[in-house]
Amino acid sequence: MSIRLGLRENLGQFSLLVLVNAFVGAMVGLERSILPAIAEQEFHIAARTAILSFIVVFGVSKALTNYFAGHFSDRFGRKQVLVAGWLTAIPVPFVLMWAPDWNWVVGANVLLGMSQGLTWSTTVIMKIDLVGPKQRGLAMGLNEFAGYFAVASSALATGWFAARFGLRPEPFYLGVVYVVIGLLLSVFVVRETRHYVAHELRTHHPETGESRLTQGEIFRRTSLTDCNLSSVSQAGLVNNLNDGMAWGLFPLVFAAAGMTLVQIGLLAAIYPAVWGASQIFTGALSDKIGRKWLIVWGMWLQAGGIAVTALTADFMTFGLGAVLLGLGTAMVYPTLLAAIGDVAHPSWRASAVGVYRFWRDLGYAVGALLAGITADLFGLVPAMWLVAALTLLSGLISAVRMTETFTRGTG
C-alpha cells in the first residue's frame, strides 16, 4: 500500500477521526450545563470546592492518562488505545443516571477523565500522523472544532432535556448513544496510523540524536528545558485552568444572576460553540502567520472574556463574555498542538503530545481547586478575577519566552 502524507491524501480516514472525536467531545458536554445543578438540588452540596470536586478528579485522571496515552500509542498502536478509551467510557452515563450519592458522580468522572485521555489524545496523534508537517494547524483546528462543537451541542441538549424532563436520568441517555457509536466506529472502521510516522521519518527526518530520547528526557524538555515546548505546556495548563473555572463556576454565577436552566444551558453552550467553530479558521491561520502571537493574544482575549463575565449579571453581556472566551480559546487550542508538532521529532512526538496534554488537562484540577477555594473564601466574582489575572500572566510568559515554531514551506 502506498503511503502519502497530507490531509487531502487521507481525507476519508481523517474525516472519520473527526467524527469519532465529535462523540468524544459530546461525552464531556453531558455534564457541562447540569452537573453543578445536580450537586446543589439533588445532593444538597453548598460548598463550591465540593461541587467542583468532579472537575478535579476528571482533570487529574485525564492528565495522567494523557501522559500514558502518548507512550502507549507508540508502543501498542493508536487504534488499540482509542478502543480502550471507549471501553472505559461505557459505565459513565449509567452511573450519572443512577448515582445514589455524590461520591458515585466523582467516581464516574475518574472513568470519564481516563476515557477522554485515551480517546482524545489518540485522535490528535492519529491526525498528526496522517497530515505530515505541512497542515498541522488546519488538522488540529478541525479536530478541536469537532470535539468542542460537540461539547457545546451536547451541553445545549442536556440543558433542554433537564428543563423538560428533569435533571436525571433522561439527559444522560444521550451518553449511551455516544459510547455505542464511538466504540463501533473505532473498532470496525478506524485504521492504524503508526506506519505513517515511519514513512515521515524516512522521507523528512534523517536519523540523529534527536530521535533517541528517553521518556524522562522527553518529559523534561516538554515541561521545563525547551523554551518553546515548556511555554506551550504552561499556556495549555492555564488555558484549561480557566476552562475548569468556567465549567464549574459559570453555571453557579448564571444561576445566582437569576438565569433559568434553559438560559444556563444556552450560555454554557455559547463558549464551547464559538471555541469549536472558530478553530477551523484559527488552526489554518496558524499555518499562514505562525503560532506564537495567536497563542499570546488568545490568552489575553480569554482574560478579557472572563473579566466581562465578572463585571455583569445580564444575559446578553454574559453571552458576550462567553464569545470572547471562546474566540480566545480557539486562537490558542489548535495552535498549541500544532506547535508541539513543529518542535518535537516524529519519533517522540506522540510522547511529547502526551506530556503537553498531561500539563494542559492538569489545569482542570488546578482551576477547579483554585476557583472553588477562592469562591468559598471570598465569593464567585473574586475567583473569576484571580483566574483572569493568571490567564493574562500566561500570555505574557509566552510573549517573552517563545520563539516562532512554524517554518513556512515545511514538508
UniProtKB/TrEMBL annotation:
- Keyword Oxidoreductase listed: no
| Domain annotation Major facilitator superfamily (MFS) profile: ranges | 10-406
* Superkingdom in the source lineage: Bacteria
> One matching Pfam family, short form?
MFS_1
* Transmembrane stretches, start-end: 12-30, 50-69, 81-99, 105-125, 145-166, 172-190, 249-274, 294-313, 320-344, 364-393
Q: Which UniProt keywords apply?
A: Cell membrane, Membrane, Transmembrane, Transmembrane helix, Transport
InterPro entries per record: MFS, MFS_dom, MFS_trans_sf, MFS_Transporters, Sugar_transporter_CS
Q: Where in or outside the cell?
A: Cell membrane
User: What is the recorded membrane topology of this protein?
Assistant: Multi-pass membrane protein
User: Could you tell me which PANTHER family the record lists for this protein?
Assistant: INTEGRAL MEMBRANE TRANSPORT PROTEIN, RESISTANCE PROTEIN MDTM, PUTATIVE-RELATED-RELATED
Protein's UniProt name: MFS transporter
Species the sequence originates in:
Vogesella margarita
